[in-house]
Amino acid sequence: MKNTIWPNCLSSSLVRNAFIFVLFIMTSCKEKITETEVAKTSVTQLDYPIQPVPFTSVAIRDDFWTPRLETNRKVTIPYNFKKCEETGRLRNFAIAGGLEEGDFEGIFFNDSDVFKVIEGASYSLQVHDDSKLKSFLDELIAKIAAAQEDDGYLYTNRTINPDKAADGAGDKRWTNLQTYHELYNVGHLYEAAVAHFQATGERSLLEVALKNADLIDQVFGAGKNMGVPGHQEIEIGLVKLYRTTGEKKYLELAKFFIDQRGNAEGHNTTEGKYAGKYQQDHLPLAEQEEAVGHSVRAGYFYSGATDVAALTGETAYDNALDKIWNDIVHQKIYLTGGIGAEPKHEGFGPDYELPNATAYTETCAAIALMLWNHRMFLKSGDVKYMDVFERTLYNGFLAGVSFEGNTFFYPNPLEVDGVSKFNQGVCGRSPWFDCSCCPVNVVRILPSLPSYMYAVKGDEVYVNLYIGNETEIPLESGNLQLAQTTNYPWEGSVKLEILNKNAISAVLKLRVPGWARNRVMDGDLYHYNDDHSPTITVSINGETSNTSIKDGYITLENNNWSPNDKINISFEMPVRKVVSHELVAANRGKIALERGPLVYCAEEVDNPVGVLDLQIPEEEMLNYSFDSELLGGIGKIKGQTITAIPYYAWAHREIGEMSVWLKQKSMP
Ligand code: FUB
Ligand code: ZN
To answer: pTM for the full model?
Structure first.
C-alpha cells in the first residue's frame, strides 16, 4: 500500500527512521534551549578554567556565618526594602510607570539600590522558599516593568519628568555618561534579573532587562555612540545576560565598553570632573599599570574585564590586570583588605599613603575587590587571590554591617577618635545613607557567600574557605558529597568528611591561608614581625599524612575516597603582630594584631585609658581567649596593657577611640 503520510523520498523505512531521529534531535534540542537557555552555551563556550560551585549546592551550617546569613535573610533584606520604600525609591518606579502621581525623589542613581536588594532577595529565594517575598518581588517587578519606556529605556528620574531630572542627571538621554549613571543602574538591573530568573524560573524581570540591553546595544557600539559608562557595572551585568541567554551580542557589548575605556577619541567623557583617571578612562586598559580613581568603579571594571577575558579568550588585558593587582596589593591596600584611601574621590591615593583615621575604604569597594579577586582566582588558580578575598571578607567587608543587620558603615576607617565624624558620619554604623550603595550591596553579597567556597577543575576540588557546610560537587568522576565542620575563624581545625555512598575519585586541594603560610599578603606591604611558621597538620582517618604545601594548597589525591572518610586539617592559630612597610608613614612605630584571618582592633570601651596613645611594650605577652558572653561570642586578645577585639566587631558598644594600628614601645 502506498504510504500517504511520508513524501516519496522518505518512503524507505531506513531513510524515514533517520529523518525521525533528526527531527527528534532537533525538537528535543529546541525544547531544551527554550527551557533552560543557560544550557545553550555551556558546552562550547570559552570560560574560566576553574568553575565555582554555585551557592545553591552549598548548605552552610556554621556557628560564625549561619547567624550572619540568617540575619541578612530575616532582617537586612526586608529592612532594605523598607528603607527603599520610605525613601521613595520604590515609589519612583510606580510614578514613572504612571501608577502613582508625584515627583522623583532622591538621588539619580537610586534605581540601582532597588535592583541590588532584588538581587540579594532572589539569591535568598534560591535557597529559602518564601512565598511572601516572592509575591512582594512580583509586585515590585510589575512597577519596574511599568516604569520602562516603550523602547526599553529605564531610568525613573528622567522618565518621570525630563525637565525636572534630579541633580546630576540632565533632560536628555546619554548626553552626560560621565555622571548620569544610566548604564550603571541597568548593570545592577541585569544582575538582579538573572538572579530572579534563576530563583523563580520566571522571566518577568529578565524580559525588562533584555529589552533594556537590546536598546543599549542599538545605541552603543562601533559607529554608534562610542561613549563609556561613567561608573562601570554594566559590563558585569551584560556578561551575566550572555551567560543566561547565550546571546553573544551582550558579551560583545561588554567587551566594547571595556575596550573603549581610555580610547578618548570619539566619545564624550574626556573632560569634566569625573573624566580620565577618576573613572579609569585615562588609558586603554591594556596600557594601564596602576590602580587609580574611584575604587568601586575600578573594582567593577577589573571584574568585568576579567570576565570578558575569560569568556572571549582575549589576552590583551592580562598584563595590565596583573600590574594593577600588584599595585593595589603591594602598595595601596589596607590590612583589613579595604581599598580606596581618599575620601575626596572615594578612591585610590598615592602608593603607601594609607592614613588610618581618614581611610575611606568604602564597603562597596571591599565588595568590588572580592568580586575581582575571585575572578582572578578562577582564571589562574593562584592562591594569592583567595588570600586577599578572605582577608577582605572577614575584615573590610564584614565590618560594614552590624550584628543586628540594620546599621551599616560606608567608609571603614582603621582609627577613630570617637568624636570627629567625617564624610558619612563614621563614629558608628548608620541606619541608612542618602547615597545608600553600601547597605544594598551587603544584601546581595551575603547570600551568595557560599559560591566562593569551592571551585572545580576536572576532578580537582579547590576548598578555598573554611566554613561549616554540606555540599555536592559535580566532578568528572561523579558527584562528590562533602561535609565540612569547623569552628573557623576562632579555631584552625577543619574536618572534611566524604558523604558518598560509593567510593569516588577526587583531588582535594585544601587552601592553606596566607596567614598560615606566614604571609600577610603577597608583596611586602605588611609582614609578621616574627618568623614563626604556624604548624599545619593533616590526617586522613586519624592517620597523619605527610603532605606538603605546593602553591598554597595541600593536595590530597585519591581515586578511592570511601564513604565516611575523614580528613582533618589543622592550622595553628597564634596571635601575630603585623608591621607595615616603612614607607607607610601612618603605621611607623606601630603594630597591628591578627589571629587567623581576623584583624583585631582596640576600642576605648575595653581600654578606658584610651587607645590612640596607648603604648604596647615590645615584650608584652598577648593571649587569646574566646569570650562567649561578649557580642554573641567573639575572640579577644589580651595583654597587660591592652584588650583587642576583631575589627569586624567594632562599634557595637560605646562610641570611643578605636585603632587597628597601635603604638609599640621599644625595650629600653
Ligand atoms: O556612584 C554610585 C555609588 O555611589 C558608588 O559606587 C559609590 O562610591 C557611591 O558614590
Ligand atoms: Zn557603597
So the answer is: 0.93
Helices vs strands, H then E, count in the chain: 18, 24
C-alpha dihedral sign at 233, 235, 238, 239: negative
Strands (DSSP E) found in 397-453? 415-416
Three-state secondary-structure class, residue 540: strand
Hey, what's the cell of 460?
A: 580537582
Span 340-382, pLDDT tens digits = 999 999 999 999 999 999 999 999 999 999 999 999 999 999 9
Give the sign of the dihedral formed by CA 592, CA 598, CA 601, CA 606: negative
* C-alpha span between 431 and 121 (Å, rounded): 19
Distance of CA 526 to the CA centre of its chain: 24
Residue nearest to atom 4 of ligand 1 (CA): 437
489 upstream amide cis, omega within 30 of 0: yes
Helix ranges restricted to H, 61-109: 65-71, 77-86, 89-96
Cell of 155: 531610568
- Residue 111 and residue 449: Cα distance in Å, rounded? 24
Residue nearest to atom 9 of ligand 1 (CA): 437
CA distance 64 to 66: 6
Indicate whether residue 109 lines ligand 1 (CB < 6 A).
Answer: yes
Amino acid at 20: I
Ligand 1 neighbourhood includes 435 CB (under 6 angstroms): yes
How far apart are the C-alpha atoms of 90 and 139, rounded to whole Å? 11
> How far apart (Å, rounded) are the C-alpha atoms in residues 535 and 379?
30
> How many whole angstroms from 606 Cα to the centroid of ligand 1?
34
Strands 615-617 and 662-665, sheet pairing: parallel
Alpha-carbon gap, residue 66 to 470, rounded angstroms: 13
**pLDDT tens column, 405-439:** 999 999 999 999 988 766 566 678 999 999 999 99
- Contact between residue 298 and residue 347 where contact means Cβ atoms under 8 Å apart: yes
Q: What is the C-alpha separation between 602 and 612, in angstroms, rounded?
A: 9
Q: Which ligand is nearest to the CA of 293?
A: 1
> Could you tell me which of 505, 511, 625 has the C-alpha nearest to residue 558?
505
- Report residue 168's pLDDT band, with 50, 70 and 90 as the boundaries: confident
